[in-house]
Amino acid sequence: MLHDPNRVYVFDTTLRDGEQVPGCQLSTPEKIEIAKALELLGVDVIEAGFPISSPGDFQSVVELSKAVKNPIICALTRANRGDIDSAVAALQYAKRPRIHTGIGSSDMHIKYKFNSTREEILARAVDAVKYAKKSVEDIEFYAEDAGRADDMFLAQMVEAVIAAGATVVNIPDTNGYCLPEQYGAKILYLKENVKNIDQAIIAVHCHNDLGLATANTIAGIVNGARQIECTINGIGERAGNTALEEVAMILKTHHSLNLHTHINSKHFSEISSMVSRMMRMPVQANKAIIGKNAFAHSSGIHQDGFLKHRENYEIMNPEDVGLNQANIILTARSGRHALKHHLERLGYTIDKINLDDVYNRFLVLADDKKEITDDDLLFLMSDGEKDPYKNGYKLNLLQVVCGDPLSPTASIKLQHDGVEKEAMAMGNGPVNATIKAITSIIGKEIDLKEFTIQAMHGGSDDVSKVNMRVSYEGKSYMGYGFSTDIVKASANAYLDAINKFL
Ligand code: KIV
Ligand code: ZN
Fold first, then answer.
1. Which protein residue's CA is at the shortest distance from atom 3 of ligand 1?
2. Residue 165 domain flag
3. Could you point out which of 19, 93, 190, 210 has its C-alpha 20 to 30 Å from the C-alpha of 442?
4. Is residue 355 located within the same domain as residue 452?
């Protein structure tokens, strides 16, 4: 059934498993933008959403099906006919639709989640696949919590769903429980004990609760799986999913594995920044492949060795993941042409954006900073026209007084729906005073749960990036802001989160 036995198919679930992270919800236009970037990256399947879960998710699957041409568009369901009907309807415009249906396979799930028996669960699994197959040819079945399932029962389930028409069988380590040896052995067991296994592709879907998602994914494909399920930046529930960029670069670096994908790794840096800023989810500096420090050599011994021969301390080229060094430096004296050159290098299509508008905002930032870096440009681009909350609260004025022995006081003016409101508040620091002043205008009970400030490069003139997580009526919302002024970046991050629920 596979033309190339060494080809590994890449199934991206950033927009489904990744988007389940509290506070990381995206609008449909944002999802379309990410889906187009995934298409350019070369993924084979995009899991676009879980249509029955909400009207918004349903609509996103519809719109993504229209917007994306090459990858298969997949929709998630539980093993019931209502979910499947909804997925079939959402996929009506997809050129290559796939339904991803499934049910728990471990005794733990069978007993405590479904209050059922192995026999009953098996019958439901088979019924779901047969029912979905009437409308869509390509059916992927997931055996949830397969990591903890009994291998013999799992094999029985896999054989039954393939016989019912499943084209892909997904063996998720839903709770990130397995050790690589165990997970690899599970895949091998299925290869050796399921009679009709050659009629389907085995997929591996690993979670990172013990930090083993990538190792388990590799163990799975080494033992015969040929589809990996992963997300950009490893984003996902709890500790996340397998990071797409990690597995792709392992296969590219270790030729001895003799396995390959159709991923163009040069897009990693760009798509990683896009997902991070749209989801308001910072990437840790030491994250493999795409973290800020992934290719930074800081100790004297390493720098010396690196300069003598790059491969002494580098197993991959930064260029291979899209980290090409800029050879024209941008400053306040740079013109539109130089700015356009850099934006195109970062993957922006200039005819789609208003260069004059970006240039004006660039000059404001360049007046504050000596040199404008790629990170600065990415954040500049994420401000303004792409802001999905254009009609939300905007900061019109911010003035803070602080110092020793002054009491930190903030005066602010916010604009909303054409009306300007002002407030003043005192706090234990300038940020605290600003947050209090904003909250007094909004007039709701908002809980600030997380607050991080990152300088992008260093230097007291640097741009600060602020991420916040706020809680409102029991739900989490993420926000970010950036500015050379930490207090202004904080105010904008707070408003960004607030605009999501107001
Ligand atoms: O982790 C999991 O088991 C899942 C399934 C829905 C595939 O995400
Ligand atoms: Zn999952």
1. 174
2. yes
3. 19
4. no
